[in-house]
């Protein structure tokens, strides 16, 4: 059973915007924490942003703070990543993930969606 499905990736010019969506199963969406990660070619996967179910408090990587916004819609079991002022260095495959506990490994991962930012 697929628990997380990303969508919304694509090709955009530098300075543009994209909104990624992560559709989750009800079980997965009830997880303590959900996050977005990305992996660029030849680089390790890195944390981008995360959000807690309890109070919707958020965390951001320094590189995206002020440009990206993470949110969740509990009625739709969907998490979003609004990406503004995109830069070529934001080019990567973006993954959503969920974690049932405050800390520790992530339990479920999506298949990823490609974001390409042209200069």
Q: What's the helical proportion of residues?
A: under 10%
Rounded to the nearest angstrom, the radius of gyration is: 13 Å
In total, how many beta strands? 11
Shape: globular
Number of helices: 1
Largest sheet: 7 strands, mixed
Helix and strand composition category? mainly beta
The end-to-end distance, rounded to whole angstroms, is 38 Å
- Average pLDDT, rounded to a whole number, is 96
Beta-strand residue percentage: over 45%
Low-confidence stretches: none
Give helix and strand order, one letter per element, not per position: EEEHEEEEEEEE
Notes on the protein architecture:
- The protein is mainly beta.
- It has one helix at 26-29, and strands spanning 4-7, 10-13, 18-24, 33-39, 46-52, 58-60, 68-73, 78-83, 92-99, 108-109, 113-118.
- The strands form 2 sheets. Strands 2, 4, 5, 6, 9, 10 and 11 form a 7-stranded mixed sheet that branches. Strands 1-3-8-7 form a 4-stranded antiparallel sheet.
